Structures are given as structure tokens and as C-alpha cells.
Amino acid sequence: MVSKDHKSLVEVTNLSVKFRTKDLVISAVDNISFSIQKSEIFALVGESGSGKSVTALSLLRLNELSNGYISSGKIIFSPSDDIQYDLSSADNKLMQEVRGNEISMIFQEPMTSLNPSLSIGTQISEVFVEHQKLSHTESKIKTFEMLKKVRIPEPEKQYNLYPHQFSGGMRQRVMIAMALSCKPKLLIADEPTTALDVTIQKQILNLIKDLQEEIEMSVLFITHDMGIVAEISDRVAVMYKGKIVEYGKTSEIFQMPKDAYTRRLINSVPRLGSMRGKNEPEKFDIL
Ligand SMILES: Nc1ncnc2c1ncn2[C@@H]1O[C@H](COP(=O)(O)OP(=O)(O)OP(=O)(O)O)[C@@H](O)[C@H]1O
Ligand SMILES: [Mg+2]
């Protein structure tokens, strides 16, 4: 029996993920447990190769496309109070429903997910035609609404533009519009601002934060940057070599990190505004 915790949207318990390669099995995620609460921004942070993306992709069971498999654990998803399923063992039909409607994902480089030969309006409205079976006219109206929602000005004009006519930040807004068009319960954002410059990065973070509140969805936000963790997340799990080494409220972990690796990550974040009149940014003083 699965215990019912009405606040958890996702409850991951003892999850391990492995990859089968030609002559060996690689362990990417090793016995991790965490939960994502309803209407919170939960961050996964850690250095490259620590297992952040593999963890996120396991919620959508997308590691299976590259010879990955869940070797142990449960992923209990509770989209409403009376519905619960274990995504680690759900069948394909259910997973397709979850991927299309309940959990959406955005990535670092929107250009790889957008079709260069279709206007952005056409691409967003296709989501409505396919997933919600709306007519073309209704889909167009919904697309204008979504473009407004992600604060793209003059949506009627932007509708007919192609991805290459947009800046990186605007393209990420388009991806967010597509991801949110099905009103997901969970948005997974895997390093969505890493390729953007600092000012645009900040705008996209603010947008995700605002939309999370407006839509009352949960966000799983992946980053290697503790500064972003501090800025955006309610709670955080710090990953190191496939394991979670620290887990809890973001504010408490910044005040009193228990793990040496977390302290190192925090110490590498420049203090905001500390460069004024100096050559080097000041670092957090925790160690
Ligand atoms: N398809 C795959 N086949 C084999 N090993 C993989 C595969 N995908 C990931 N891994 C391994 O799993 C580990 C975790 O990878 P993952 O992509 O989750 O890291 P990450 O924390 O997201 O890193 P980054 O910050 O660089 O995106 C790595 O050691 C990686 O080599
Ligand atoms: Mg990654």
C-alpha cells in the first residue's frame, strides 16, 4: 500500500537508475529519495554528471530511449487527491498521457526542440489541436492567450515569426508557452537559463516563478548554480555522484549546510552586488 500524503505531488523513494552499455552497466542514480510538494519550486542542484537530468527524465521514463532503466524504487505521482500512480512501473499508455498532459519539460536549448521551418504560432497551436482536439480557430485564440501569458508582446504579430527570428530568451518563452499549454501539474525545467545572458536569465526565472504561482503548478528546477537555487526554490536536493547528499528547505540549507560539497557549492556563488568597486566578487562566508 502506498501511504497518502496529500501535499506531495511526486514522491520518489529509493530510486536507482542504470544504463546498459555494450559491455558494462553504469549506475547513474543511486538510491535517492525526495518529494515534490504541490505548488512548490523544488531544485535539483549538482555538478555536471551528478545525475540531475537522469533523475528528471526518470519521472517521464525517457531514459528508456537510451538504454536506461529503473533498477529499484518507486515514483508515486498524485495528480489529484484520489488518483495515484507509480510512474516507475506504469504502462506506455499511461506514460503517454502523463507526458502529454500532466508533466511537461523544458530544456537548455529551445532551438533543438523547435521546428525551424514552422512559425512559432503554428507550433504552439499544434499542441492544442493534437492534445486538446481544438479547432484551428480555437487553437489560434488559445495560442494568443499563451503568448500573452509568457509576456510576449503583440502576440498577433509574433504568431507568424519563425524561431530564428526570435532571441534566445524569447525562444525559451515560446517553449514555456508550449509546455504550459496543457496546464501541467509539474513543469520540469532542466537548466532552462544556462544558455542565456544574465539579464535575460533573470527575466526567465521571474517568469517561471510568476507562472508557477498563477497556474499553481509545481516546478522541478535543475541547475548547477547555487545562486539560482537561492533565487527560485522553496526546497532543494543537492546531488553528488548519483546520490542526494543534502535535502531540505533552501533557506535552511543556505544558513546551515551540513554537507561539505554543499558548502563548496555555496561558497562558489558570488555575493550579489559585491563587485562594486572591486576586482573580485565577494563569496558567501560559510566555511
Ligand atoms: N544514455 C546514457 N548512457 C550511459 N550513461 C549515461 C546516459 N545518460 C547519462 N549517463 C550517465 O549518468 C550520469 C548522470 O548524467 P546526467 O545527465 O544525469 O548528469 P547531469 O547532472 O544532468 O549533468 P549536466 O549538468 O552536465 O547536465 C553521468 O555519469 C552520465 O555519464
Ligand atoms: Mg543535465
Number of helices: 11
Class of secondary structure makeup: alpha/beta
Query: Outline, from the CA principal axes?
Result: globular
CATH class: Alpha Beta
| Beta-strand fraction estimate | 25-35%
Task: Give the helix proportion (percent range).
Answer: 25-40%
Please summarize the sheet with the most strands.
Answer: 6 strands, mixed
Bound molecules: adenosine-5'-triphosphate, magnesium ion
Strand order of the largest sheet: 6-7-8-3-9-10
Mean pLDDT: 91
- The CATH architecture assignment turns out to be 3-Layer(aba) Sandwich
State Rg: 20 Å
Kindly state the number of beta strands: 10
Order of helices and strands: EEEHEEHEHHHHHEHEHEEHH
Report on the structure:
The chain starts with 7 loop residues before the first strand and ends in a 20-residue tail after the last helix. Helices cover 37% and strands 26% of the residues. A hairpin with a 2-residue loop joins strand 4 (68-80) and strand 5. The chain has one domain: P-loop containing nucleotide triphosphate hydrolases (Rossmann fold, 3-Layer(aba) Sandwich). The chain is built from eleven helices and ten strands. With 287 residues, it is an alpha/beta fold. The chain is globular and about 50 Å long. It has a six-stranded mixed β-sheet, sandwiched between helices. The mean pLDDT is 91. It binds adenosine-5'-triphosphate and magnesium ion (MG).
